[in-house]
Amino acid sequence: MSKPLSPSAQKVQNTLHALGYAFTVIESETPTKTAAQAATFVGCLLGQIVKSLIFQGQSSGKIILVLVSGENRVDEKRLSELVGEPIGRADPERVRSVTGFAIGGVPPIGHLQKLETYLDEDLMQYETLWAAAGTPNSLFQLTPTALQEMTGAQVTQVKEWR
Ligand code: 5CA
Q: In testing the pocket of ligand 1, which one of 30, 53, 141 has its CB within 8 Å of the most ligand atoms?
């Protein structure tokens, strides 16, 4: 028998099941707070890790979820064009109050409110991805198509070019 999931990870597992997905949440003994730690733990490429980042419209206060490949950074200028107003990072308290989860464990689904969502097109090239599952040591494996479907995200170019 595997150990029961912590409450936040169980919440994400329940959301996945409620949405009709069979993906399984796993918990690590070691932190998977960063994309690099997550990739090392599951043994995948950094690019296959889904970072769930929370931004905020600076005029409207609207909250935006950006799903970014672990190897990319968000181009904030590009994101503000997509959103139609200046944007900035949401602070940690705000992240918790809109998603119900703390930074380091924010999952792509299961938030307290529905969020306008953009998906980094680079994530679509992989057969499978791994996303955080509600805690800084939980993850689940999924497909890019499922990620797009479960979030209703707009697939687009959001990365910063280096
Ligand atoms: N569990 C891992 C892999 S899925 C994870 O959640 N990674 S993450 O990238 O989605 O979440 C951590 C991100 O939170 C960091 O990349 C960073 O951009 C963001 N972050 C960290 N500290 C802050 C902060 N003080 N305010 C806003 N965002 C922050």
A: 53
For the chain, domains (ranges, CATH) are 7-156 (3.90.960.10)
The rounded distance, in Å, linking the Cα atoms of 87 and 89 is 7
CB of 38 closer than 6 A to ligand 1? Answer: yes
Q: Are strands 49-57 and 87-89 parallel, antiparallel or unpaired?
A: antiparallel
How far is residue 37's CA from residue 118's CA, in Å, rounded to a whole number? 24
CA atoms within 13 A on the CB side of 145: 2
Residues 6+ apart with CB under 8 A from 114: none
pLDDT at 63: 98
Q: Is the CB of 142 under 6 A from ligand 1?
A: no
- pTM of the predicted model as reported, rounded to 2 decimal places: 0.97
In this structure, what DSSP letter does residue 103 have?
T
Q: What is the pLDDT of residue 161?
A: 87
Any ligand 1 atom below 6 A from CB of 31: no
Least confident residue range of 1-15, 62-76, 114-128: 1-15
Measured distance CA(65)–CA(99) in Å, rounded: 10
pLDDT higher than 90, residue 147? yes
Which residues is 116 bridged to in the sheet? 64
